[in-house]
Specification:
The chain is an all-alpha fold. It has one domain (2-22, 30-119). It is built from 4 helices and no strands. Helix 2 (32-56) packs parallel to helix 4 and helix 3 (58-86) packs antiparallel against helix 4. The protein starts with a helix and ends with a helix.
Length: 120
Amino acid sequence: MIKNSIVFSILLILISLAWNHFVPEKLTSPAMPFIVVYFFISTVFTHQFLIKVNKQSAQGFVRAYLGTTTFRIFLNLIVIIAYMLIDRTGAMAFSLSFLAFYFLFLIFEIISLQKDLKKK
């Protein structure tokens, strides 16, 4: 999973750099590559934790998944609000970029978890 996450993240960083280069400035955020790194770290830690919990108990997995998802949603809201307070002019582009990467990593994480859980 980590290898796939690295490849996926590098691909998204390259896409975000190209996006920032070719798209008008008001639609871009210089923080896009950092958002990818943030979600990479978050996804890898969450994935490893959930796999570990699943080995112990299938019922514990459901609680852990719901708990980590709730925690991450609140953490993501804090990150977005903090950025909005720091850079009001780029807040919209940042928020839209953050949301797009959130959904991309969410899909990636679900697919990865399904594959890893089917193996066990």
